[in-house]
Amino acid sequence: MNHNQPDTSDVIQNSTTDEYYNQHAGEFFETTVKLDMSATIHEFSAHLPENAHILDAGCGSGRDSKLLIELGYNVTAFDASSKLARLASEYLGQPVLTCTFSQFKSNNQFDGIWACASLLHIPAPDMSQTLCHLSQYLKPEGVFYASFKYGSEDICKDGRNFTNCTESRLADFVQETQLSIIKTWKTPDTRPERVDEYWLNALLRKNGSPTSP
């Protein structure tokens, strides 16, 4: 498999997921934009150089991009939902791209990639290839943050597909990539109505010599 060639599986597989976020963009924005992710972002930023350029992959409301910008980083953000991308752009005061993971292309190489609760919509068979596609835009030794709902079984909710993840499943996803696991940790959902749900957080690092997208 040529991991440098993005496929269109996430466009096809997640069309209903994208429709959900377009239909519920305003509600999703309001319920997520004020959630406090500062502790996790500081865990991520501890591995970044000063003035780092970060890719927010699947930025949703733009909440995390905003904090990263406030911390002094340069952020490029995208989301597959055109309506969420527009709301995020208005919130951030800068352009937000509309594209899926496999559609994303850039002439830049990033110091870090932030994928908070976004890769979980990629089908499990396509996860390694998606990680490979994104990480080709990551500088060697760059850091990659990703989070998934904690669990070993995939689910479908409100027309959205969720690929859940455990530590061992994450290791399987990463095995065929240029990424290695720095650390993983579990956190409870910060929304009051979801206190019984947990998330798997992962910090990954890109190995190897420089590559060009």
TrEMBL record:
The lineage of its organism: Bacteria, Pseudomonadati, Pseudomonadota, Gammaproteobacteria, Oceanospirillales. Gene3D superfamilies: Vaccinia Virus protein VP39. InterPro entries: SAM-dependent_MTases_sf. It holds the Pfam family Methyltransf_23. It comes from Oleiphilus messinensis. SUPFAM superfamilies: S-adenosyl-L-methionine-dependent methyltransferases. This is Tellurite resistance protein-related protein. CDD domains: AdoMet_MTases (cd02440).
